[in-house]
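hey so i finally got around to running the thing on that chain from the lab meeting. sorry it took forever, my laptop kept dying and i had to restart like 3 times. anyway pasting the input first so we r on the same page abt which one it is
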Amino acid sequence: MNIMDFNVKKLAADAGTFLSRAVQFTEEKLGQAEKTELDAHLENLLSKAECTKLWTEKIMKQTEVLLQPNPNARIEEFVYEKLDRKAPSRMNNPELLGQYMIDAGNEFGPGTAYGNALIKCGETQKRIGTADRELIQTSAINFLTPLRNFVEGDYKTITKERKLLQNKRLDLDAAKTRLKKAKVAEARAAIWAEEVTKSEQEVRITQSEFDRQAEITRLLLEGISSTHAHHLRCLNDFVEAQMTYYAQCYQYMLHLQKQLGSFPSTFLSNNNQSSSTPVPSASASSVLASASASLPSVSNSVVTSGFSELKSSSGSRKARVLYDYDAANSSELSLLADEVITVYSIPGMDSDWLMGERGNQKGKVPITYLELLN
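ok and heres what got predicted. didnt touch it at all, straight out
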């Protein structure tokens, strides 16, 4: 037998198998043929896999919308990803707003109150934009990629094996139908007993193939539980990335509010705001305090008690400066972030301030800019 004859016979066999499956499937739909049902455990596994795939796709797509609200940008990133090319770098919305604010501030004059405030706000917006990029990158690697790998990889394998199982079941049921017809014909002495034997052997073979494929499919489907466990770890990574992002934004905005609060009283009075202290207003500070309570690096009770003890004593402590601070007048001391100064309290001093010393320089400093050292 040459190769051409072999290929012709193989094509004929494949066509016969396809036709047999099509006939069996059609008769099942019309209620004219019996169907081998899968066991309840396997059916439950199939349902769980379908449910997992459905919700994974929804969560993945909505996460992409959350991280990148611009649909055109998402399409562009998808195209570049399929082309295996890096998308061109562009400013995100916070960065663009920040740049506009900085440009406007420089145009109005950095020496003016409004111009200076715009520049500081712009710098903060750009920091938030950088944090936003880090959130997107981290979430894409640790959360979106594993979900996409399941949908485009593992589930496609499951679908392939499930289709094979469906074909094996159709082959089995078609063989059972032929055996039933052969036995009826034998009873009528219409065929030889060999036909029945041949049909019985075909049923045994197709049953064995069906059972083997059912076991393969079951093993794959039971891996869905491991998929859930893996996706749970990925979800924790996503939540941690969000927590880091929001904590950064909170710290940036807190610092910005303190900077804006340190502007001269002549500017603040134009906006009907109090200039006695650079700390946030009562309503804003309550919101910020509740937010800071969730940050692992902040312990409000420890910080408050430390300053209270210092104010009630006549001693001094070393303190680290958290943010830059520009003195509003000659009674205050300008500060640089991360420097260490000596602080102490004097009788009758405002509760939001301490005296600070750096070498021969001294002046009032706001406690919200300080971290007491042990």
